[in-house]
From TrEMBL:
CDD domains: alpha_hydroxyacid_oxid_FMN (cd02809). This is Alpha-hydroxy-acid oxidizing protein. InterPro entries: Alpha-hydoxy_acid_DH_FMN (IPR012133), FMN-dep_DH (IPR000262), FMN_HAD (IPR037396), FMN_hydac_DH_AS (IPR008259). Its cofactor is FMN. Keywords: Flavoprotein, FMN, Oxidoreductase. GO terms for molecular function: FMN binding; oxidoreductase activity.
């Protein structure tokens, strides 16, 4: 049997409505950053070790105190009910079966309660609203359902422009149930419900205080911003350019990670996403100092083509490939992957 991940995007293109597939695949503007993301991971080379006992290989990792059996975590993506009738709940089942972590988008078509009922470990992503309290019902609901952290997406004062082709867009197809399952009735009708354009470190402090959950700031590319997050009380910073969907031309995350780790890696956890597609990319992320690597689009394509089983299969296949990679690198556990493995 071939590799499940190979051709996954093409299979998703075959089964999903064109407007839905386009929405998930596209980057902003010219898709420069989207198309460069994976290549930046590919550039790294390794110096494998020999004469090491790799009879047992340990893939476990810890994020914010939670142990993950599978280190391929799943980034928040909106509107998963566009690709599967059970949307985020089906995604959660696959992730739970694989022993990974799910970050639930604030634009989810499934409730936190239904997602939690699958047993998945999950965090809740939020876009802070112009009127700050307007985003609190979502967060209180997430916390009550068992979310272990809040992910503040900081790179979206405005949604990056995407060029749609001919024909209907996902917004023409979208039912109201695709994106707003966790908001109170009437959400979105007030100007205060729009995304904040004046986010600052004080919002990180405020979220930590109000939710009493660890706050992860997502969308950080610069060491100076990572420093500001750490000083504001963030528990982690997440190096991301939003899958190339915000500023087109933003640097590849694989090229930004190391400077962020150098600045704050001793104080807070550092995560990364963007173009992560193989076990080798995850090893690279850990070698550069990340404690978790997330994927956005591939799990959605797996969900769209084969439902929960597809998500589980994608993550399981990557686990198998990671075991092989660590054996060949002479490294018996993911926790022992360091820059010393990289050839520079
Ligand atoms: C996203 N992303 C995203 N991020 C976020 O914080 N909240 C969200 O609701 C969404 N929605 C969303 C929708 C779609 C269709 C995509 C492709 C992405 C960004 C996402 O969390 C992640 O940063 C990137 O997808 C990672 O890049 P890869 O793995 O898709 O290359």
């Amino acid at each position: 049997m071939g590799r499940f991940a190979d051709g996954l995007e093409e299979r998703a293109a075959d089964v999903l409505p064109e407007a839905v597939f386009r929405y998930f695949r596209q980057g902003s503007r010219d898709s420069t950053s989207t198309s460069e993301a994976t290549a930046a991971w590919e550039r790294h080379r390794f110096l494998p070790q020999v004469l090491r006992d790799v009879t047992e290989v340990d893939l476990r990792s810890t994020v914010l105190g939670a142990e993950l059996a599978c280190p391929f975590a799943v980034a928040p993506t909106a509107m998963q009910r566009a690709v599967h009738p059970e949307g985020e709940v089906a995604m959660a089942r696959g992730i739970a079966a694989a022993g990974s972590l799910m970050v639930v988008s604030s634009n989810s078509g499934s409730t936190f309660e239904d997602i939690a009922a699958t047993g998945v470990t999950f965090w809740a992503q939020v876009y802070v609203t112009a009127d700050r309290p307007a985003c609190l019902p979502l967060l209180h609901r997430a916390a009550a359902a068992g979310a272990r952290a809040v992910v503040l997406t900081a790179d979206t004062p405005v949604v990056g422009t995407k060029h749609d082709g001919e024909g209907p867009t996902i917004w023409d197809l979208a039912g109201p149930g695709w994106s707003h399952a966790n908001f109170p009735d009437g959400y979105g009708s007030s100007p205060g419900d729009a995304k904040a354009t004046d986010l600052g470190p004080q919002d990180v402090e405020w979220l930590a205080r109000t939710t009493r959950l660890p706050v992860v700031v997502k969308g950080v590319l610069r060491a100076d911003d990572a420093r500001r997050c750490a000083e504001a009380g963030a528990a982690a910073v997440w190096v991301s350019n939003h899958g190339g969907r915000q500023f087109d031309g933003a640097a590849a995350t694989a090229d930004c990670l190391e400077a962020v780790v150098a600045e704050v890696g001793d104080e807070v956890e550092v995560y990364v996403d963007g173009g992560v597609r193989t076990a080798r990319h995850v090893v690279t992320a850990h070698a550069l100092g990340a404690s978790a690597a997330f994927m956005g689009r591939p799990p959605v394509y797996a969900l769209g083509t084969e439902g929960s089983a597809g998500v589980e299969r994608l993550l399981g296949e990557l686990d198998d490939e990671l075991t092989e990679a660590l054996m060949l690198l002479g490294c018996p556990s993911l926790g022992r992957v360091t820059t010393a493995l990289l050839s520079r």
